[in-house]
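Re: [ENG-882] Designed sequences occasionally contain unexpected residues at chain ends

Forwarding the minimal case from QA. Structure tokens:
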């Protein structure tokens, strides 16, 4: 690459977020990864560096405006321009509607939607003068339909989807690709292995989504030519009922 470029992954967990960061790092992008605890990012950073890539970990709470502003300023100032920004915070919780407290509903919205707004706004400020960039918001089944027991999560993911649509309509004409891939299916994680062993048993048959496959899909979205951009695409294993 003729110039340094950074990929920012907000919510770089042990599965999807980490796989996305590693995929972009293989292409020479400097991986800037965040979680609320930077210590949990040490294995991911070490893995990227061992493979010859460059990575930096940041402890940051995506719900805090001042922290998001400072994070993006620091990356742009000290590391490289943010070419790609990915919001990948989950916040998937299940509560019956009468057991859903105001605190739970608000916290889920903060994590799954408000943090996305803060990231999107701040990186757009940096990308607009350059006239280029990619912003990706990770969607879920709850982005499209609200299941019983998921009022808080579905409300937040629906709101994130609307944010992504509004940003796409505003920013596409200005050279910034905003996308909202929907991950509709179980992902190969420790949570699925432990709590849904019957679903995890389908892994060898391609029955659950590989985080590496998600990372590849995100890379392909970023590489799309401007005359054929995708805004929303659905990613699911072949056996998923939809």
């Amino acid at each position: 690459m003729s110039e340094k470029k950074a990929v920012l992954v907000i919510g770089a967990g042990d599965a999807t977020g980490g796989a996305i960061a590693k995929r972009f790092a293989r292409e020479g992008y400097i991986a800037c990864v965040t979680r609320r605890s930077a210590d949990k990012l040490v294995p991911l950073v070490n893995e990227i560096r061992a493979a010859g890539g460059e990575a930096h970990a940041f402890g940051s709470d995506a719900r805090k405006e001042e922290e998001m502003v400072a994070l993006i300023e620091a990356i742009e100032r000290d590391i490289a321009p943010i070419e790609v920004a990915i919001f990948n915070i989950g916040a998937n919780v299940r509560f019956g509607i009468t057991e859903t407290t105001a605190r739970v509903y608000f916290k889920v919205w903060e994590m799954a939607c408000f943090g996305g707004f803060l990231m999107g706004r701040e990186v757009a400020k940096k990308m607009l003068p350059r006239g280029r960039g990619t912003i990706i918001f990770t969607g879920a089944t709850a982005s499209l339909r609200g299941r019983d027991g998921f009022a808080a999560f579905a409300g937040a993911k629906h709101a994130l989807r609307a944010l992504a649509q509004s940003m796409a309509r505003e920013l596409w004409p200005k050279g910034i690709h905003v996308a909202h891939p929907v991950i509709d299916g179980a992902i190969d994680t420790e949570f699925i292995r432990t709590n849904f062993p019957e679903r995890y048993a389908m892994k060898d048959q391609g029955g659950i989504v590989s985080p590496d496959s998600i990372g590849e899909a995100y890379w392909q979205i970023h590489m799309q030519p401007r005359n054929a951009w995708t805004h929303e695409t659905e990613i699911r294993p072949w056996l998923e009922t939809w």
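QA comment: On inspection the terminal residues look reasonable. The first strand starts at residue 6 and ends at 10. Proposing we downgrade this to a documentation issue.
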